[in-house]
Amino acid sequence: MKRIFGGLVVLLVVLFTTVNFSKAASYTFNLTGPTEASKGQSVTLTVVADGLTGRVDLTATNATLNSNSVWVDKNNATVTATITGFPAKITATPYQLSDSEYNDADVSAKTITITEKKNDNNEENSSGSSGGSSSSGNNSGSQDRPNESNVPTETTKPKTETEKSSNNYLSGITLSTGTLSPEFYRETFEYTVEFDDTVNLYELTEMEITAQAEDSRASIQGAGTVTLNEGENSFSINVTAENGAVRTYTIKVNKPAPVEQSSLRLKTLILNGINTNGEYQTIDFTLEPEVFEYNLTVPNNISSVSINPTTENEDIIIETNGETTLKEGENKIVIILTSPSDETITTTYTLNIERQAAIVEEQGLTQEQIGMIIIGGIVGVILLIIIIVLIVKHRRKKKVYDYDEYDDEYNNAQLENNEEDDIIDPYPQTIKTRENEEEPISEKNESIEKHEETMGSNVALKTENEVEENKTAKLKWDDFCDTYDEEEENESKKVKDKKKGGKRFM
Is residue 146 part of a domain? Predict the structure, then answer.
C-alpha cells in the first residue's frame, strides 16, 4: 500500500514540474520609451521582444520614424522617432513573431503616447515679467513727485543673441519602396537601395524619399518624390543647420534597362513538383516559346520543383537562377538562354510560382487546459484505487455472520419470564404447547427453518427427551448451545473474541 501511494506521489510531482516548466517558457512583447518630449526632439523607443523572433512594423502619428520596421531575434530593437506635434503616438505591430519552438506568438500591438514636455523657463519668464509690471506700477506712482526730470532712468542692456544650432544630422530616411543598404545611421552618408522580387524594376518610374532631421531648426532639401531613369540614379539630401552648416546624404538607385529578347527560344519545359514525402507530382503547365513570363500556383504539399528545359540547338547555354525549394508565398525562378558565340545575346524566361499557405487547423485546448485535465484524471484514478483497496481490505478482515445479538437477548428474556411448565426450545424437533399435544409437522418445520435462517445451522437441536426432563427448570438461552461440535465451538470462540460481543456487518 505504501509503495502504491509513494509511486502516485512521485507521478504527481513529475507532472506538476512539467506543467510549471511549460509555463516558465514565456515571452514578452512591448514598446517602451519616454512619454514626454519637446517638439522637434528625437527620442529613442525600444521594442521589447524577449524570447521572440520576427518582424515588427511601426507606424507613427505626429512623429517621423527612422525605420518603418525592425527585426527582433529573441532580443530588443530600437527605433528613433522625431516629434512633429502632440500628442505623438507610435505603434509597434507584430508581424509573424514566433517563440523558441517556432510557434506563432499570440501578442497584440503596443502603442506609446508622447505629450509635450513642460518648459520651466516659460514659467520663470512669466514671473519675471509680472515683477517688472509691479515695478512699473511703482514708477507710475512716482509721477506725482516733483522734479521727476531729475530722477535718473534705468537703461536696459540689449540681450545677447543666443547661439545658433549647428546640428545638421538626419535622424532617419524612409523609402516608399525598397530598403536602404546599409541600415541607416546618422554618421553614414552614402546608401544604395535594394529591392526584393516583388518589385518590377522595369516598371518602377518613381519613388518617394522622406528624411527627418534631428534638429527641428534644420532645413532639408532633396527629399520627396524622385524620378527613376534607366541606369544608376543618385539623389542628394542636404541638411542645413540653423547656423548655415550643410551636410549631404547620398542615395543611389540602380534601375536596369529592359532586356530585349533574342531569337533564342526554349523547345520544351517540363515542370514536376516534389511533395513533402519526396514523391513527384505533375504540375499543370504548358510552355509557349514566345511567352517569357508565367504565373503558377501550387498546393502547399509541394515543397520543391524539378525544371527540365530543352532547346533546338544543344549548344545554347541554359542557366537556371532561383531556389527550386519553394517557400510559402511567392517564389521566382529565372531561366536564361545564352548564345554560345556571344554572351550578350540572351533570352530570359521567368516563372513566378506561388506556394499556397498551409491550412491552419483550429486550435484545440491550450497546454494549461490539457495539464489540468491530466491532473484531474490522475486524481480520479487515485481516488478509485483508494476505494478499491479499502473494500478489499475490509472484505479480508470480515466474514459473513448471520448473527444477531438481539435474538439472544430476546430469547433469554422469554425463557426467564416463562412459567415453570412453559419451556421454549429454540430448536425443537417436537414443540408441545400442552402436555401430550404436538404441533403439526408443517408448523414445526417452518419454526425450524425460521430459527436456522436467523441463528445459523451450527447450533445443535435439543432432543425431545431433554425438553421433557427440563420442563420445570428455569433455563437460560445459552444452555441450548452445549451441543456444538468441538471444532465449531473453538472456531466460534475465536470469532467471538475478535468481535468482543459487537455486531459485525459487511
Answer: no
